[in-house]
Design brief:
The complex is a heterodimer of chains A (407) and B (81). With 407 residues, chain A is of the alpha/beta class. Chain A is built from 15 helices and 13 strands. An 11-stranded mixed beta sheet of chain A has the order 5-4-6-7-1-8-13-12-9-10-11, with helices on both faces. A two-stranded antiparallel sheet of chain A has the order 2-3. Chain B has one domain: Non-ribosomal Peptide Synthetase Peptidyl Carrier Protein, Chain A, CATH 1.10.1200. The longest helix of chain B is centred in the middle third of the chain and has 15 residues. The chains are: A alpha/beta (407), B mainly alpha (81). Chains A and B meet through loops of A and helix 3 of B.
Chain lengths: 407, 81
């Protein structure tokens, strides 16, 4: 069986907005979601730069007992998934009468784990952690919460692949649907935005220290980049078989054409060129498309020296003289990590559906590697129908999705 | 009979945590039904009482305390005990 896989719904909760419309406008207007958070300085951060992620108030939607199991990342994921279901015209009756799966990227529950541990250490009484602590602090917290809230009955797994987690989630979801094992899967990624989860990340000097100019700090591919800015939120896409979408009269937004993946088998934090290259080449090979068909590449580029340089080399080597438009939306959002694969598919989809390519924010001067790419430094009012989205993670895990518009 | 100050503290604490009207909480009312507690949120109630009053409700006693009146009595008898 080799079925077509389509995207029929999207939802987002990010530093660029609390829904698709807000995020589309932010992308169009080159809004930065990055701020300086003084509280991070007080707890010893080298860099207090971060994304400004709004906190959802779910008191009206979810009971106290439901919310008790949800850390912030699960709340973001809930908000994004509600929007995605609405966008896909799926109601609870549909979910109750069909086997709908759930594959969500997540790779930390730092704050919840820390809170529980702190209580045990201080009080020496595990019962004082509260009933929600165990469910909040397991890495599968997002999928266990969403699966119960929406009463989902298909596959239910959290995908942990560092900063490629949610790209892998979409890729794996597409694979299951393509092979006839599921008709519809809720895919996405969530990222906690509190400082505790990424304090140790700050500790290895990975973050930009351009604290005097927060909105200029995340500058993927720019010659003067000095590190990433941590982001957060959640993004959900509903993927289903083409037949399922047609059968229920769903809005078909795009097709997940192919998924490529690879592992560098190399250094834990420093990426190489060969691994990402193989991921890109696999996605292209499986797509059956000529590489000239890829009009836009949403790069993983996080604004680190080595990461952006290696990805630029990989993209340039793979596409040779095709020169697709390239941007990293992380200039606006910072690095949304576990969420980034899914959110960047949505950012790209919003641009594709609205006929523009947002500028790679803060790209002012290329270096020798990014000079080989066709980076969009100011907004383009241009339509495109096929894009490629890269997501790479610590440990050398790589994921590449190719998505094609369906009008 | 537990004193009014203790009753008010218990009622306010539980109404706020479990998002109920404080007027729903009466000495005769069933705790689980009123606060919509399941086996997990019951753990939270026990933890709250311990944090607020320093009274740890023993496992065997949790199931015996059915009403808020019984809870007030239990706390009163065990506080600073």
């Amino acid at each position: 069986m080799d079925r077509r896989v389509v995207i029929t719904g999207m939802g987002i909760w990010s530093c660029l907005g609390k829904n698709l419309d807000e995020v589309r406008d932010s992308l169009y207007n080159a809004k930065s979601g990055i701020i300086f958070d003084p509280a991070r300085k007080e707890i010893g951060f080298r860099s207090a730069l971060c994304a400004n992620v709004p906190q959802p108030d779910l008191k009206k939607q979810l009971s106290r007992n439901q919310r008790a199991f949800m850390p912030e990342e699960a709340k973001y994921a809930y908000a994004a998934t509600v929007e995605a279901f609405n966008n896909a015209k799926i109601d609870q009756d549909y979910l109750d009468s069909h086997e709908v799966g759930l594959l969500y990227g997540n790779d930390s529950t730092g704050e919840a784990t820390m809170n529980a541990t702190a209580t045990i250490r201080e009080k020496k009484d595990t019962s004082l952690c509260g009933s929600g602590a165990i469910f909040q602090s397991m890495n599968s917290t997002v999928t266990m919460n969403l699966g119960c809230i929406f009463r989902l009955k298909g596959i239910n797994l959290t995908i942990s692949g560092a900063c490629a987690s949610s790209s892998h989630a979409i890729g794996l979801g597409a694979l299951l649907i393509r092979n006839g094992l599921q008709d519809m899967i809720v895919c996405g990624g969530a990222q906690e935005a509190n400082p505790w989860a990424i304090g140790a990340f700050d500790g290895i000097s990975a973050f930009s220290t351009r604290e005097d100019a927060p909105t200029c700090a995340s500058r993927p591919f720019d010659r003067d980049r000095d590190g990433l800015v941590p982001g957060g939120g959640a993004a959900t896409v509903i993927i289903e078989s083409y037949e399922s979408a047609v059968r229920r009269g769903a809005p078909i937004l795009a097709e997940v054409v192919s998924w490529g993946f690879s592992s560098n088998g190399d250094h834990i934090s420093s990426p190489n060129v060969e691994g990402p290259t193989r991921s890109l080449e696999m996605a292209l090979r499986l797509s059956g498309l000529d590489k000239k068909a890829i009009q836009y590449v949403n790069a993983h580029a996080t604004s680190t020296h080595i990461g952006d340089a290696q990805e630029a080399k990989a993209i340039a080597n793979v596409f040779e003289d095709c020169k697709p438009f390239v941007t990293s939306t992380k200039g606006q959002t910072g690095h949304e990590m576990w969420m980034a694969g899914a959110s960047e598919v949505i950012y790209s989809m919003l641009m594709m559906k609205n006929g523009f390519i947002a500028q790679n924010l803060n790209f002012e001067n290329p270096d020798e590697d990014s000079a080989r790419l066709n980076i969009v430094s100011s907004r383009l009012e241009t339509g495109f129908d096929t894009f490629l989205s890269n997501s790479f993670g610590f440990g050398g895990t790589n994921s590449t999705l190719i998505i094609r518009n369906i009008k | 009979m537990a004193n009014n100050e203790l009753i008010e503290r218990v009622n306010t604490l539980l109404a706020e945590e479990f998002e109920k009207e404080v007027t729903d909480i009466t000495p005769e009312a069933d705790i689980k039904a009123t606060l919509e507690l399941d086996s997990l949120s019951l753990v939270d109630m026990v933890a709250l009482i311990e944090q607020e009053f320093g009274v740890k409700i023993k496992g065997a006693d949790v199931t015996k305390i059915k009403t808020f009146g019984a809870l007030y009595e239990y706390i009163e008898q065990n506080v600073n005990a």
